[in-house]
Amino acid sequence: MDINRTLPGTIKLVDPNGKVIEQLVQYDWKPQYYQTCYQIGHSCHNKKVQKQEMGQQTYGMQNQGKIWKVEEQWQLEKGKSATKNNGDGRDEMAVNTGNAFTALVDTAQRGMNKVFKQKKLKNFIRENKVVLIAVLENRVKETKAEGIIKKIFNNWRWIENYSQAPGGRIWIAWDQTRVDFEGYEMHQQYIIGEVIERQNGNKFRFGTVYGMHTVQDRKRLWEDMEKAMAGATDPCVLMGDYNTILTNKDRAQGTPVQEFEVKDFKDFIWRNGLTELKTVGRKYT
């Protein structure tokens, strides 16, 4: 569409049989356009340019009498959609989530022992211009981990949690020419640290989670992760496989969701003022 011309009132379409159909176009809002100065939203007949204010959409989670307002500046290419809550008579606390990365992306690939899977991950990193990545459920023994990690990530820096989890549940690797990952805390079920962008010095806390399989084992996850986040003032992103769900909509089949399954996860999100990021793509793999 040529923005140097007035927006069309009709468009022509061709159906599968080759017949041309003229379709009327209706606009919810149509800007002013003046042929003399070729500017949109401006009229040469008016001396003053009217500024149009556009509202910024926010979403948040209630937390101890406050609403955490999160600016929607992230793109996420797969996962679950965020819920929205509106505050009523409570103070609002803004949380800046500006981010210089193009997108948050993920892949459902599991296991890194096979060469073809290593190549697939390398291609994923290159095609999506990834500079920081977490690998869960790699199924690689500690004795082989260093060699495989170097094949995949070349000269990147990396850490793993074999010291906390014999099976090596989490790897994190990053391109040290673009970002640093510092002050991290190791745990059997997570690694949390601070990401610093080299280009502009922006900081945010980044945590990768791989939760245990039982409600009882995950209680330690929520308790310890909350301690690790205590006092943090920078924006924070937590992502990974929690091995649990938030609502019955997150389970396609199987037994009905019981409240005891989701309570701890919900409470953790509520207490820490977190909210689920909006995503696009398939919800189930």
Q: Which structural traits does this protein have?
A:
single chain; 285 residues; alpha+beta; Deoxyribonuclease I, Chain A; 15 strands; extended; Endo/exonu/phosph_ase_sf
Largest sheet report: 4 strands, mixed
Task: Say how many strands there are.
Answer: 15
Topology-level CATH name of the domain at 100-243: Deoxyribonuclease I, Chain A
Series of H and E elements: EEEEEEEEHEHEEEEEHEH
First-last Cα distance: 36 Å
Count, helices: 4
Mean pLDDT: 76
General description of the model:
- By secondary structure, the protein is of the alpha+beta class.
- Among the domains are: 10-40, no CATH class; 100-243, 4-Layer Sandwich (Deoxyribonuclease I, Chain A).
- It contains 4 helices and 15 strands.
- The strands form 5 sheets. Strands 5, 6, 7 and 8 form a 4-stranded mixed sheet that branches. It has a 4-stranded mixed sheet with strand order 12-13-14-15, with helices on one face. A 3-stranded antiparallel sheet has the order 9-11-10, with no helix packed on it.
- A hairpin with a 2-residue loop joins strand 6 and strand 7 (66-71).
- The protein is extended, with a radius of gyration of 24 Å.
- Mean pLDDT is 76; it is low at 48-102.
